[in-house]
Every structure is written in C-alpha cells, then in structure tokens.
Amino acid sequence: MTRSLTVTQITDRSPTGRDVVASMRDVAKRYGDFDALADVSFDLERDKIYGLLGRNGAGKTTIMSILTGQGVQTSGEVTVFGATPFENARVLREVSFIKESQTYPDDLRVKHVLSTAGHLMERWDRDFAELLLDDFQLPLGRRVKKLSRGMKSALGVIIGLASRAPLTLFDEPYLGLDAVARQMFYDRLLADYAEHPRTVVLSTHLIDEVANLLEHVIVVERGRVLLDDDADELRRRAVVVTGPTAAVDAFGAKGTVLHRDSLGSQARATVQVTADVADRARLLDAGGTIEPASLQELVIRTTTQESTP
Ligand SMILES: Nc1ncnc2c1ncn2[C@@H]1O[C@H](COP(=O)(O)OP(=O)(O)OP(=O)(O)O)[C@@H](O)[C@H]1O
Question: Domain locations in the chain?
Fold first, then answer.
C-alpha cells in the first residue's frame, strides 16, 4: 500500500541540510516585450521570515503571484512543496497570499469572508481569528464594501495570520493600517510564529518597521535578485563610516562602497565589508566612526547604486 505524503512533508533537503519549501530557478516573466523578471533564482526555507524588498515596479508582486499560482512564468522552474504551484489545488491549500489590492464580492460581510477562509484553509484557527477581530476592532456583520481602507487591510491581515498556512505571503496588505494597527500586526505575527512556525514572506517599503522581524532578505531591482542573504549577516557586513576623507576612502577600498558623500575634508560612506580588525582600528585612530548600517539604508544604497547608469 502506498501512503500519500502531505504537501508539507514534501521538501527538498539539500546536501547542506537546508529544508527548502519553495524555489525559483532562472525564472523570467515577460509582458509583451517587457521583461518584468529575468534570471530570478532563490530558495525559501521552512520556518523562516523573509523580507522581499525592492523599489516600486521591481517585480515583488510578480514573484509572489508566480509562487502562489496566480501567474505563470515565461520560462524557468518554480517549485512549491515539491510541485508546480500553477493550477495545483493540493499545493495551494497550503499557501496563503494576502495582497493590498484584494477584492471581495460586494455583498459579503466580514463573517462570510472569514467563514469562507475557514473552509478553504486547512489550518484555520477560529479562536485566533476572533482574537484578531477584537484586536483590529472589525465588525463581523459589516459588509466588506462598507469597510474603510484600513479595515479592509485588517481583514486581509486576519486571514493571513489565522490561516497559519505553511507558506504565507503578505504583499503590503498593511499599507492601509495606521501605525498602531501595523505594530499590532507585527506583534501578533511574531508571537504566533514562535508558537506555530511557518514560512512567511513580507513585501514592504516600511523596511525599518519590519527589520527586526526578518531572518532573511531578498532584494529585487528591475526584475533581478540583487541580494539574497541572512539578515544578521547583512547587518554584520554593512557599515556606515564617517571621518577624514582619506581614512574613509582607505576603509572603503577594503570592501564595496555602496554610497559616498563628502563635505569639505570629511566623508561618509556606506560600505559592505568583510570585517578586518586592523582596518577598523586605522579608521578609528584617524578620528573616524563606524556604525552598523540599518537594513533600510543597505537596501536603499544597494538599489539606487544598481539604478545609477
Ligand atoms: N499585467 C502586466 N502587464 C504589463 N506589465 C506588468 C503587468 N504586471 C506587472 N507589470 C510590470 O512589471 C513590473 C513589476 O511589477 P510588480 O507589480 O511585480 O512590481 P512591485 O515590485 O510589486 O512594485 P510595487 O512595490 O510598486 O508594488 C512593473 O514594471 C509593472 O509595470
């Protein structure tokens, strides 16, 4: 007798022991004669929180749509839980994709949307959904079309969290939320993730806000992957140095200068370095300073550097 595997058991254990739940290999997406994605390759590992970051039009939504079977690539290979996601109900039951532009049939009330989500998502937690409804103060009986923009965003966030899908993608659904509600989302996500780990992908422009949530960062620019790194590793490698121009430039020469400003005899540079104690000491001796770059600074500098002709 053959026993069928559940989707979440199907993962690609690479020789390095990485537990990959989804991957893209050399993926391209073409709209007419426009290349929205080119040579996109990355893996998503089990039980990690990813930041999918990049400027407007970089290709983030296109990537998420393909991973969740809402679009199909022009070429390349996409695997989610061991299979092609497109038109694959078995895979898509394990995937939750929440986006800002989500529309719902006009006549549905909040309670109808939630009960539909409950039927569709295998791991739906009704109690958790109710707790979140209370947090975000969403009226169950209200028609979705009568909800404010922020309330609609909250509805998406509730569905994404309470689904507990093994692969959950949030494409900026929290844009309509105010600062208090966004913080609530981050807090609830982190607390629930600690108890029910899963793979989460967050696409956002509010990088500073989510920086502490992210374990891994994928930065896209003009349809290509620019960075695909562990968040702590990125933080260790990227620094902002200031000081006398000669000292800053000497330090910069030991790595990749992502950005540099100067004013008179002083300079400030964002540098990706493999840390060398002696280089650091020389800079400090010359009166310079060295600080870790924020994830936001790193992403801005990396993507603007790429866009500069
Ligand atoms: N259906 C489509 N037809 C033509 N071009 C498209 C289509 N969908 C997306 N594009 C283009 O593909 C590129 C990537 O779009 P995408 O929505 O993936 O970017 P994004 O990184 O999510 O942007 P944002 O941060 O602004 O939401 C953009 O130049 C966009 O105009």
Answer: 7-222, 234-307
Query: With bands split at pLDDT 50, 70 and 90, how would you rate the model's confidence at 297?
Result: confident
Q: Is 16 in the pocket of ligand 1 (CB under 6 A)?
A: no
Tens digit of each residue's pLDDT (9 = 90 or more) over 214-235 = 999 999 999 999 999 999 888 8
* DSSP labels, 150-185: HHHHHHHHHHHHHH--SEEEEESGGGGS-HHHHHHH
Q: What is the CATH number of domain 7-222?
A: 3.40.50.300
ipTM, interface predicted TM-score of the complex: 0.97
Quick count: other Cβ atoms within 10 Å of Cβ 257? 19
Q: Tell me which residue has its CA closest to atom 3 in ligand 1.
A: 31
For ligand 1, what atom is nearest to the CA of residue 64? 18
**72-124 confidence digits (pLDDT tens):** 999 999 999 999 999 999 999 999 999 887 788 878 999 999 999 999 898 99
CB of 54 within 6 A of ligand 1: the answer is: yes
Domain 234-307 in the same topology as domain 7-222: no
Class for domain 234-307, per CATH?
alpha beta
pLDDT digits (tens, 9 = 90+) for 236-265: 888 999 999 999 999 999 888 989 999 899
> How far is Cα 163 from Cα 124, in angstroms, rounded to an integer?
4
> Locate tokens 């609830």: which residue?
188
Distance CA 266, CA 70 (A): 51
